[in-house]
Amino acid sequence: TRIRExxxxxxxxxxxxxxxxxxKPSEESVKARLANxxxxxxxxxxxxxxxxxxxRCLYCxxxxxxxxxxxxxxxxxxxxxxxxxxIKEKVGAIxxxxxxxxxxxxxxxxxxxxxxxxxxxxxxxxxxxYTNSAGPTEGKLIVPxxxxxxxxxxxxxxVGSRDLNYNEYCSRYCCTASIxxxxxxxxxxGSDVEVLNFYKDIRTFGKGYEELYNKTRKMxxxxxxxxxxxxxxxxxxxxxxxxFNIEIDKNIRYYPDLIILQTAMEPHDDAKKVAETFGxxxxxxxxxxxxxxxxxxxxxxxxxxxxxxxxxxxxxxxDSVAQGAAAALYAAELLSSDVIEKESITAKHxxxxxxxxxxxxxxxxxxxxxxxxxxxGTVKSSLKxxxxxxxxxxxxxxPAGAISIKHxxxxxxxxxxxxxxxEEKDLxxxxx
Length: 432
Ligand code: SF4
Ligand code: SF4
Ligand code: SF4
What we know:
Elements: H1 30-35, H2 47-54, H3 68-72, E1 94-96, E2 101-102, E3 121-123, H4 124-130, E4 152-159, H5 174-189, E5 194-199, H6 209-218, E6 222-225, E7 232-233, E8 239-245, E9 250-254, E10 258-263, E11 265-266, H7 271-278, E12 305-307, H8 317-336, E13 347-349, H9 359-363, E14 369-373, E15 379-383, H10 393-397, E16 403-405, H11 410-428
Parallel strand pairs: 1-12, 3-10, 4-5, 4-10, 5-6
Antiparallel strand pairs: 2-11, 7-8, 8-9, 13-16, 14-15
The structure holds iron/sulfur cluster (3 copies).
Family: Belongs to the HdrA family.
GO molecular function: iron-sulfur cluster binding; metal ion binding; oxidoreductase activity
Domain 4Fe-4S ferredoxin-type: 345-374, 379-408
């Protein structure tokens, strides 16, 4: 029985259970879906419908908000009125695996993506939904503008990747994704469909991917090395583009029924904000930077913070899973260890010289400094060495010269430079 506001548990009549009618999600009409296949079959609930559905007592032995537990719990441990709160916890390790966002190809005018005049241009992710039995077309591949099965399908790779106007880097996953899409099409529709794959280079590193590429070629998919021109429409409204085919040394015009864009992997819009929150370093693109690209790929410059997956850079599922497991193991090792190993290269703070200006507090990305008032009334900064990662930023910023870095004092660096030049001089003027 649901308890209504202001009502005592004892007064709630039992027969009120299940007295709210279930809400069935409405469906898009077939006509609407044929006109716009991007629509899902089932619509989401409206806000009012969702509220009504949520107010229904399920009475299913899970929590039906009958509040009987309050009456029976002798320890008085149940509190139904608890509200959502923000909790601050001190933790020993953090794994940051915030993923990626898809590049939006509508910012490249030549592709006309999301242009209502060009509905037959979709992304690889949308193709995945189209061919999924739970997707908007219940797994049937159709041309959005006609509702008919496509005959000629063009896959265009590197959309938003390896392009100095958008992202210089290779997104790593999309060649294989594109080959997989071509394979699925040929496997399902055979000679009923012709599949063209336009590529800059085919990059199929990864177990079994080169074999899939070869298999897909044998199935009849045409791989064309070239970048398609602007997508346009002819007088009959048919979409087309040109591409130079280097194998036959000719510019060819193609009239596909459906175009699938393989889009780049990008960092989330708020990736830099998240990096600031967790004290991580970001690349110019917004991917998080590891401690060492080869030897410490999931560790960061800050002890106890690990990164995994696409927030670190473009990656495929296999490598994401491996990185996630590695990061979790590093975190577990840290938490289960009684001793923490630390680099001996840390800042050295001279309190005598410090003038208490606070510059080091603002400079240190790891929060290693605080300002303290001394017994004589002077204000000085205080260094918590365990938090220091030895980046050297505070030593450069301190206006009083009160900070040095152990093993890298000015005198030591000068001595290294002098020695290096002395050796060079010795080499240039060998003793007779
Ligand atoms: S993986 Fe292939 S499609 Fe993706 S950006 Fe690299 S070369 Fe282009
Ligand atoms: S920046 Fe230098 S002088 Fe200023 S508080 Fe820090 S250690 Fe002291
Ligand atoms: S060297 Fe200075 S700025 Fe860098 S982590 Fe240590 S205390 Fe912070």
